[in-house]
Amino acid sequence: MKVINNPNKSPLASVERDQRVSEPGFGKYYTDNMVIAQWSEVDGWQDAELKAYGPLTLDPATMVFHYGQEVFEGMKAYSQPDGGISLFRPEANAKRFAKSAARIALPEMPVDFFVKTVEELVKQEKGWVPKKIGESLYLRPFLIATEVGLGVRPSNHATYVLIATPAAAYFNAAKAVTVWISTEYVRAALGGTGEAKCGGNYAASLLAQKQAAQEGCDQVAYIDAKERKWVEEMGGMNLYFIKGSGKDATIMTPKLTGTLLPGITRDSILTLAKDLGYKTEESMISIDQWRDGVKSGEITEIFACGTAAVISAVGAAKSAQGTWQTGDGKPGVITNEIRAALLAIQHGTAPDKHGWNKRVI
Fold first, then answer.
1. Nearest to residue 69, comparing CAs of 156, 162, 137, 1?
2. Transmembrane stretches, by residue range (predicted)?
3. At 113, is the pLDDT very low, low, confident or very high (cuts 50, 70, 90)?
4. Residue 139 pLDDT > 90, yes or no?
5. CATH 3.30.470.10 location in the chain
6. Contact 115/73 with Cβ under 8 angstroms?
7. pLDDT at residue 309 above 90?
8. Residue 169 pLDDT more than 90?
9. Residue 61's CB: how many other CB atoms inside 10 A?
10. What does the alpha-carbon distance between residue 99 and residue 170 come to, in Å, rounded to a whole number?
11. What are phi and psi of 64, to 5 degrees?
């Protein structure tokens, strides 16, 4: 399987493109091209095509509209000091994409084919990659069920699409966010789709996110569906709690129980924190432990992490039990250190001893 190049014959003028890249926002502008590949139960995966970005034409009875068979990924391409471009751990995204697809009864895309589509689009759209530290070309691969029919069963046809958008930081790194701890809604239950990166998980989070906004919060933090007390993750990010200070601090994140998304940034931070000399821990933390740990000073910093946000400090939490602030409510020293160290690797200004970066250009 290969990627057939049939790029946009009328790309955006470089002056206008550069203007957009200089002030990218997040998901505000899209590149000139995209990649599409088809799969069928009979023929399997076909060659992908790199073509002009544009609308998709789908029959109203296309299965994705009715039964929600859809998965996606989020990943980034980063500028390098010598003018090159690298992807950050693309094979990890490819493997998670395949695992998510399998859970939703969609076809698994081969890892090498997935990575090839991403590399080809990045090469074509190199002019769209921002050069500032903390900015990137955000890549959104997704897979949808495209059989036409209303029978409730796995689709026998699927369409893979890859689009890209220049992206600034999702949150202001200099400002900590406030989270609403939802005790009314849950994100996922054991045996469900919590480990899959599928649209349904995010759709189910929107009502709680709306509630968070009404409470003056930026994001939602979810608790487990069974005991309704263990902290799991935020709507689109994993959480980290820092206990103690200095090099004696322990960097802790809720353990993967089958209901949390296994974040690639989360996994990278576990390794990176050890490289920086910190102890790491994957365990359970309850709402009460969160509240009491912050009040006693045992928990000194909290941050959320994900591809889009990278690392964002959590300054305060609100819930039906009250409101409590972490430290002085601002991004902490260790949070900033980990964020800077991760970005340095991604942008090629620090050694990449784990081989996370994949050079494209």
1. 156
2. none
3. very high
4. yes
5. 3-167
6. no
7. no
8. no
9. 11
10. 26
11. -60, -30
Counting beta carbons within 10 angstroms of the beta carbon of residue 59, is it exposed (0 to 12), middle (13 to 18) or buried (19 or more)? exposed
Please list the residue range(s) of the chain that carry CATH number 3.20.10.10. Answer: 177-346
pLDDT band at 172 (very low <50, low <70, confident <90, very high): confident
Q: How confident is the model at residue 174 (pLDDT cuts 50, 70, 90)?
A: confident
Tokens of 210: 């709306």
Q: Is the Cα dihedral 261, 267, 270, 273 positive or negative?
A: negative
As a residue count, the chain comes to: 361
- CB-count exposure of residue 47 (10 Å: 0-12, 13-18, 19+): exposed
pLDDT class for 171, splitting at 50, 70, 90? confident
User: What are phi and psi for residue 218, nearest 5 degrees?
Assistant: -90, -35
- Where does 3-167 sit in CATH, by number? 3.30.470.10
What token pair was written down for 38?
A: 């088809």
Residue type, 212: A
| Token pair in block for residue 3 | 């990627």
pLDDT at 94: 98
Q: What is the pTM of this model?
A: 0.96
CATH of domain 177-346: 3.20.10.10
**DSSP letter string over 12-81?**
PPHHHHHHHHHS-TTTS---SEEEEEEEETTTEE--EEEEE-------TTBTHHHH--EEE--EEEEE-T
